[in-house]
Design brief:
By secondary structure, the protein is an all-beta fold. Helices cover 3% and strands 47% of the residues. The chain contains 1 helix and 16 strands. The strands form 3 sheets. Strands 1, 5, 6, 7, 8 and 12 form a 6-stranded antiparallel β-sheet that branches. Strand 6 and strand 7 form a beta hairpin. The longest helix has 7 residues. It starts with a helix and ends in an 8-residue tail after the last strand. Bound molecules: calcium ion (2 copies).
């Protein structure tokens, strides 16, 4: 009976250490918070027998401090990650994480290969019932690896730097250490036409929820771990605009 109860618990306790951004010391830390905007600029691309539902994704940094990650080589195309959280009065804490960087190839058109965070975001499609209830996952995107960088400043504010602090992801496969991150008020956005920004919806009919989830494995420490999902309803076959 005990074993059955344990198996039914959600697999959320994956962090390497306790999250200081949810504990009593949180107010002395400039903790990051990641969010993801609902999928936008949705369109269909037909390719052979595939029907690719493409969408733009926007990972937003919305905490008191940046999401800053330091990778250290632990394999030919892999790095382990320490997260750096700055203190309100100066200095920082270093948090070991279960997250990993992968040297990821996105094709020559999009610039070749980059050090990206493995499983930073998931895109998934779930069936929506006539009562509006969202059901199980029916399809997922192949995209898992995602850079963190300051691409656009999408919300100005007191903690948000006016210029880029983390300009782009490193492309050198021989580095032993890289730093990447997204500053407060900035976004890392991938357009719908980018490598793997799609879910194959071939053969699906009806109403579905197109969900985007940032940090789905809960490897990164944030001040709010409950605002990491957004969704938009889509009717399939797609009619050119969202909604069921
Ligand atoms: Ca969050
Ligand atoms: Ca998290």
């Amino acid at each position: 009976m005990l074993a059955l109860i344990a198996l039914s618990l959600p697999a959320t306790a994956t962090a390497a250490v306790d999250n200081p951004c949810e504990g009593p010391e949180a107010k002395r830390l400039l903790c990051p918070n990641l969010r993801i905007a609902p999928p936008s600029e949705i369109y269909v691309e037909k390719l052979g027998g595939h029907v690719l539902l493409r969408a733009t994704s926007d990972v937003q940094s919305r905490g008191r401090g940046p999401m800053e990650l330091h990778g250290t080589r632990n394999g030919p195309r892999s790095m382990r990650i320490n997260q750096r959280v700055y203190r309100a009065g100066g200095g920082h804490v270093t948090l070991p994480t279960e997250a990993r960087l992968r040297f990821t190839t996105v094709g020559t058109y999009f610039g070749g290969s980059y050090w990206k965070v493995h499983q930073l975001a998931n895109f998934e499609l779930r069936r929506v019932g006539p009562d509006g209830a969202v059901g199980d996952v029916v399809r997922t995107s192949p995209k898992l690896n995602y850079c963190l960088r300051d691409l656009y400043r999408t919300r100005a504010g007191r903690h948000s730097p006016a210029g880029r602090v983390y300009p782009g992801c490193n492309q050198n496969p021989y580095r032993d250490h890289v730093r990447l991150g997204t500053s407060v008020g900035w976004s890392d956005i991938y357009p719908a036409a980018y490598h793997q920004q799609w879910i194959d919806v071939a053969g699906l009919r009806g109403c579905f929820a197109y969900r985007m989830i940032v940090d789905p494995q809960e490897h990164l420490f944030e001040s709010n771990e409950d605002d990491n999902m957004s969704q938009r309803l889509v009717h399939l076959p797609y009619r050119g605009e969202p909604g069921c």
